[in-house]
Design goal:
Blueprint lengths: L10 E6 L4 H4 L2 H11 L1 E6 L4 H13 L3 E5 L11 H10 L5 E10 L7 H18 L3 E6 L2 H8 L10 E3 L5 H9 L3 E4 L9 H9 L5 E3 L21 H12 L3 H16 L4
Parallel strand pairs: 1-2, 2-3, 3-4, 4-5, 5-6, 6-7, 7-8
């Protein structure tokens, strides 16, 4: 897929895992379906040392793919000094646009919470050092996250709450810190009423769209692996909820992604 902007509205999938087997075995097909859906740019996400290296490799191979590097909270115990140096080295590559996904996951709780918090702080320091935005994975841990991140907000580039799952009160606090809210395919689900409320109330110039492919597949494909082309269904649902055009949502969210991640065409 060439890096071209369609003449009409185009979209950015700000969070996908192109190296996961559901996508990696058919990347050319994935990209062809992106063209058909007017998805022009994909950010592929690192969750540990290996996937971060792969993300960087994919960004070098495909002009429409950008990368992040970092350690998911599920792997918090693995953040050694050597790992931090490795992420810092990877972050110097020209198409690495953020540090993450990093954060806190008190829902799965696969790592001790104290270690998760320390891992988050170390990567926040790295993001400040590298002058990169952060991509945050926060599940049932918003209070601790806000407590940890607040002292960094003045030094940290505007960053992203991936798959934002907080309520409107949490959204306001994140917006006040200058962060962007990234909306996944779950917004199309009938029971996603609080997420839908956030979409209606948040400023459009602070929203992003994502798939988290191969996870969180939107309706009408729920139950199947997600892929970047399906971010269109998320954008269409946001347009429905906000009572505006798909073109307005596409233009705003793609422009927001460009501001956050800093790429140029």
């Amino acid at each position: 897929m060439d890096q071209v902007r369609p003449s009409s509205a185009w979209l950015v999938d700000t969070h996908a895992h192109l190296d996961f087997p559901e996508l990696a075995t058919d990347l050319e097909g994935v990209f062809a379906r992106c063209r058909a859906a007017q998805v022009a740019v994909i950010v592929t996400i690192g969750i540990d040392a290996e996937t971060s290296r792969t993300a960087v490799e994919l960004s070098g191979r495909y002009p429409h793919v950008y990368a992040t590097v970092g350690l998911h909270p599920h792997g918090a115990r693995r953040l050694s000094d050597d790992a931090l140096h490795h992420f810092a080295d990877l972050a110097t590559q020209p198409k690495v646009v953020a540090i993450g996904e990093m954060g806190l996951d008190y829902y799965r709780d696969r790592q001790p919470r104290e270690r998760q918090r320390a891992c988050l702080e170390q990567q926040l320091e790295l993001a400040v050092q590298c002058q990169k935005p952060g991509v945050f994975h926060i599940r049932e841990a918003h209070e601790d996250f806000l407590c940890i991140v607040r002292p960094y907000a003045g030094r940290l580039r505007p960053s992203v709450l991936h798959c934002f799952s907080g309520d409107w009160k949490i959204a306001v606090r994140c917006l006040d810190l200058g962060f962007y809210l990234s909306i996944p395919g779950t917004v199309t689900y009938k029971n996603a009423q609080e997420q839908q409320r956030v979409v209606r109330l948040a400023p459009l110039d602070r929203l992003l769209v994502e798939t988290d492919a191969p996870y969180l597949t939107p309706i009408p494909f729920r139950g199947k692996p997600n892929e970047p082309a399906y971010v269109r269904y998320t954008a269409e649902k946001i347009a429905e909820l906000r009572r505006c055009s798909f073109e307005e949502v596409a233009e705003a969210t793609s422009g927001n992604a460009q501001k956050v991640f800093g790429w140029t065409f």
